[in-house]
Amino acid sequence: MNELEQAYTNKDKDYVPRTQHIDEQGRAKFVNHLILESSPYLLQHAHNPVNWYPFSDEAFNKAKLENKPIFISIGYATCHWCHVMEEESFDDLQVAEFLNQHFISIKVDREIRPDVDATYMNVSQLINGSGGWPLNAVILSDGKAFFAGTYFPKDQLLDILSQIQILWQNEQNKIINQANDIDKVLNKAANNTQGDIDKSIVSKAIKAMLSNFDELEGGFGEAPKFPHESMLLLLIDVHKRHPNDDQLNAITITLDTMASGGFYDTVGGGFHRYSTDNSWLIPHFEKMLYNQAQLSLVYTRAYQLTKNPLYKRIAKQTLDYVLREMQDANGGFFSATDADSEGEEGTFFVWSIQELKRVFNQDEFKHFNHYFDLSSHTDFEGNHVIRFKEINDINEDDYLKIDKLLNKLYDLRIKRLPPLTDNKILLSWNALMVPSLLEAGEIFNEVKYTQAGLALADYLTSFNQDNQFYRVSIDNQLQTIALFEDYAYLANAYLSVFDQTNQQIWLDRTIQLVKDMTQKFWDKTQFGFNMTQDKKYLNTNYKEAYDGAIPSANGVAYKVLIKLNNRTTDREFTQQAQQLLSTFATEINQDPYNFSSFILGFNNATDQELSSVQYAYDGRVRVHTQKLNKNQVAINVTLKPLWHINSNQPLQDSLIATKVISTDTKNWTIRGSTYPEGELAQLGFSQEKISIYKNNAQIKIDLIDHSNNSALPTLELTLQACSDKVCLPPTNITLKP
Q1: What gap in Å lies between CA 651 and CA 680, rounded to an integer?
Q2: Can you state the angle between helices 447-460 and 484-501, rounded to 10 degrees?
Q3: Are residues 541 and 469 in the same domain?
Q4: Using alpha carbons only, how large is the chain's radius of gyration in Å?
Q5: Is residue 196 a part of any domain in this protein?
Q6: pLDDT for residue 43 is more than 70
Q7: How many domains, the chain?
Q8: Helices 596-607 & 229-241, crossing angle to 10 degrees?
């Protein structure tokens, strides 16, 4: 028995080969090299008659030895069109015979190797002006590509492969030259030139977003509609700083429509990947962890901004769904669930009128029909997606009745055959979950989210073994060296834990992580972070700058560097942040619409961070602002040892008093303030005793709300930090509780 057959035999009793080619004993007739892999996506193809290899030296060496081109196909386990192409072509004997005779075939899980995916996606964009999954390319044994495309029906695929095979036989040099030309273009495009960021880049980005905003249905651009979380987070940040009706409309119309159902799973919580239509009604039904992480954060921050209880409901339901259905026993979160079940897309999520009438009694169905749209408008292939008729007409009390009805559907739905779960745990996507859980814990005053966020951060430290981070955990086994994306997202997660706990170990971990990230991925000549260290067969130093389905890793790294500058005395972080921004400044200036993560970082760099925890004097002073109730705020000031601030009554006219004022008296005025009593101290620079706060001080502010909109209070905290020997210049910190 060869190695592949033995690996198949060793699979546990629950293992089901995914193929139509089954013998009389119920065993798969074919087994290829993917049987040795652990990726759910690769294992889906392990019994195709195509003789697949993983992205490996073995495959490239074989192509070189046999002088064959390589057919490389890239996708992921929950990709609907990947499943379609597998069934039509890769599990087809005719296609397999042709590929096996004339090509070496490689399968790649794009979620494990986004660097490989990005390389050949760039080729597809260059050749076709578009890309997607499955992504299919034909490449040389050195990794250079000369053809790329996405989904092809069987006959078209065979025609393309036949033409390539004839060219390879008769005009191989022509193909090699074409691959070299494409490689030169991509490498030239990868070269960055330093530039200065446009000082008005924030307003230009907002203008670009609003010009592309769908005023009727929300969101940006035309169908298929993606949630564009990075844009929404930037809009919320800018609206906090500079309230504007157009910005608020873009936020609220988008969030209201997305939450209404279809794109949002009203029965089980959580969001699907994108909407196939403009009104967020018919989704592409797969659910990705990164959408849950980002959209729960968007709705949490939108609730903080507007106090709309709908946004709190959606954020909590999304996080509850992730904690309930996507968490591994060891503490991490799975990557995704499929769109398909029982061989059809969406089957798990949709309902017929007959089913609903069986689930509910007559009175319940009447209530359900009152709240939810069961017209032809919500039809999906003869069934219905569950969508509210008008979500803004529903009162909080109504949800008690509504949730009883939805719980009935949920209890029945979990008995259906569920979509496949992609059980790999990705470091970067899990790191996205940490700040989302921690912010929800604080803003909603829900300890379970805080505890879950801290536990997840602790769990992610285990991805570091022998001073090497790994990207993937499957069945509690680490694999695949971590990419730049993993480091950037994890550094941001660690900083969110530091801000939550004020425990120095998390800041130290962040600093070490950024130093390692710089050593591994930083381009020392042109600046910016490369996507990967391992360039074998990839040929291009690719740097990811724009936001896609997940935020730009370089944009996140820029925000991390800005935050470290505010939390430490190390000026190297400032210099590196400036170099990083200038690397992509030309691209950002030309197209601010696609660079929200960078621009949000730029806001933090030029106009202070606007979060519940802020820092002054290189981290020596920490300010944690809490909303105790609608109109009362607590401002907690924590000082490093050997440092103090003047009290509210410092006794000497020359010293700056600690005080809080409202800078938006049109909307909010201060009814009363409670400052702690100062401690008298004799310091080296003064012959008289002065009144100070050291270690910790809490200021309570009672506010009167005159606002008729969602403008948050704008408070200004003035303080002056001193040591025994010197007083630093006073500073003002803007607070937006």
Answers
A1: 10
A2: 140
A3: yes
A4: 28
A5: no
A6: yes
A7: 4
A8: 20
Give the model confidence (pLDDT) of 432-456 as tens digits. 999 999 999 999 999 999 999 999 9
Q: Cβ(187)–Cβ(152) under 8 Å?
A: no
Strands 632-639 and 696-705: antiparallel
Arithmetic mean of pLDDT, 322-327 = 97
pLDDT higher than 80, residue 1: no
Two structure tokens written together for 703 = 């506010």
600 with 631, same domain? Answer: no
pLDDT digits (tens, 9 = 90+) for 330-369: 999 999 999 988 888 999 999 999 999 999 999 999 999 9
**Percent of the chain topping pLDDT 70:** 99
Number of Cβ atoms within 10 Å of the Cβ of 205: 27
Q: Residue 529 corresponds to which amino acid?
A: F
Same domain, 333 and 374: no
Asked if residue 322 belongs to a domain, the reply is yes
User: By the 8 A CB rule, do 201 and 601 touch?
Assistant: no
Mean pLDDT of the chain: 94
**pTM value > 0.85:** yes
Q: What is the pLDDT of residue 684?
A: 66
Single-letter code of the amino acid located at 719: L
Residue type, 102: H
On whether residue 670 sits in a domain, the answer given is yes
Do 363 and 266 have their domain in common? no
Of 97, 103, 32, which is closest to residue 63 (Cα–Cα)? 103
Name the nearest CA neighbour of 717 among 635, 631, 629, 613.
635
The answer to whether 600 touches 551, Cβ cutoff 8 Å, is no
Strands (DSSP E) found in 82-169:
104-109, 135-139, 145-149
For residue 397, pLDDT over 90 is answered with no
User: 522 and 380, same structural domain?
Assistant: no
Domain that holds residue 619: 613-735
Question: Per-residue pLDDT for 683 more than 80?
Answer: no
Rounded mean pLDDT, 252-273: 97
Q: What is the DSSP letter of 19?
A: S
DSSP assigned state of 22 = B
The reply to whether 439 falls in a domain is: yes
Asked if 689 contacts 647 with a C-beta cutoff of 8 angstroms, the reply is no
Which of 415, 437, 464 is at the close of a domain? Answer: 415
Q: Rounded CA gap, 537 and 57, in Å?
A: 9
Q: What is the mean pLDDT of residues 117-127?
A: 94
- Dihedral, CA atoms, 709, 710, 716, 721, nearest 10 degrees? 180
Q: Assess whether pLDDT exceeds 70 at residue 685.
A: no
CA 238 to CA 233: how far, in whole Å? 9
Burial tier of 659 (Cβ tally within 10 Å: 0-12, 13-18, 19+): middle
Q: Which residue has the tokens 């989210």?
A: 449
Q: Are both 601 and 622 inside the same structural domain?
A: no
710 falls in which pLDDT band (50, 70, 90)?
A: low
What are the C-alpha distances in Å from 678 to residues 8, 579, 610, 617, 690? 73, 43, 28, 21, 9
Q: What is the pLDDT of residues 514-537, one digit of tens each?
A: 999 999 999 999 999 999 987 889
pLDDT mean over 661-688: 87
DSSP 3: H
pLDDT tens track for 174-210: 999 999 999 999 887 777 778 999 999 999 999 999 9
Q: Is the domain of 441 the same as that of 392? A: no
Q: What is the CATH number of the domain that holds 143?
A: 3.40.30.10
Do you find a cis peptide bond into 114, omega within 30 degrees of 0? no
Structure tokens at 174: 């022509």
What is the CA 95 to chain-centroid distance, rounded? 37
Residue 142: the pLDDT is: 95
CA separation (Å) from 654 to 107, 180, 646, 721?
71, 71, 11, 14
